[in-house]
Amino acid sequence: MADLAVTSSPGSVRLPPGIWTVPPLLVLGALFFYPLSLILRQALFGDEGAFSLAHFAEVVGSRLFLDGLYHTLIIAVSATAGCLLLGFMLSLVIAFVPFPGAKLVGRLIDTFIALPTFLVALAFTFIYGSSGLLNESLMRLLDLSLPPVDFLYSQWGVILSEITVYTPFVMRPLLAAFSLVEASQIEVASSLGAKPMRIVRQIILPAALPALIAGGSLCLLLTVNEFGIVLFIGAKDVITLPLLIYDKAIQEFDYTTACIIAVVNVALSLGLYSLYRVAVAHLAGSRAGLV
Q1: How far apart are CA 249 and CA 81, in angstroms?
Q2: DSSP class of residue 222?
Q3: How far apart are CA 76 and CA 132, in angstroms?
Q4: Cβ atoms < 10 Å from Cβ of 54
Q5: What is the reported pTM?
Q6: Of 40, 161, 178, 191, which shows the fewest CB atoms inside 10 Å?
Q7: What kind of fold does domain 51-290 have according to CATH?
Q8: Which of 124, 144, 145 is nearest to 232 (CA)?
Q9: Helix axes 102-113, 155-178, angle to 10 degrees
Q10: Boundaries of every domain in the chain
Q11: pLDDT-based confidence at 15, cuts 50/70/90?
Q12: Which pairs from 177-186 meet CB under 8 Å and 24+ separation?
């Protein structure tokens, strides 16, 4: 048998293994860490170049920032809860209720993930807007002078749009998890008299829990940083942190304040991601103990 071991020639130069980590670190440094360091520097040193936390504390304690943080968290948590509920129900139907076109629906979900978020806001404007199809039809039918449906330009309009956009991000891992559930388990439980809700609670839900955590955490991160939907809908009195950064940097040219809010937004995102990793690790450890 031929010797497949790779041997270096006497005159060859052996590179240390760690050298291959340098190119990706240089790319990350140029594209991510360096711009982030500039934002952090502007937030802490300002235009004067002197380190001070006074302006930082003033921005973080302002009413405008607290309102932005409040709306960001409320919208993100509400939208994520809606995505989890709707995604779980739709995934159950697609995976366990046979109907023609189930595979086509799964492929459409994959396609929907690739669409830009503002398209959903645009579609909702055409349907539920003040001059949209629904309001125009109701105004003609009921002889009304004002649009009867007026939820779109509010916090609920943003939440509904985000649920529509991000539910597929929950469904994809759920459908993958449901495909691993043994049909024999469900058949045996059903033959023993278990009702559908009990089967879902004791067989399907435990198998779907990691996928729910993964999909829900991803939705929470995406909704916390969502900008296009909030800007496009233009909900009255609904200012989130990303929109506040845009207003301060682009409209008011207050780059220091924008950088301070951006630092808080990044810290919030990293904190949520850390909680996600801890939850996944804890869940994996708990399941390992049961094997």
Answers
A1: 31
A2: H
A3: 26
A4: 8
A5: 0.80
A6: 191
A7: MetI-like fold (1.10.3720)
A8: 124
A9: 130
A10: 51-290
A11: low
A12: 177/207, 177/208, 177/210, 177/211, 178/91, 178/92, 178/95, 178/96, 178/204, 178/207, 178/208, 179/95, 180/207, 181/95, 181/207, 186/96
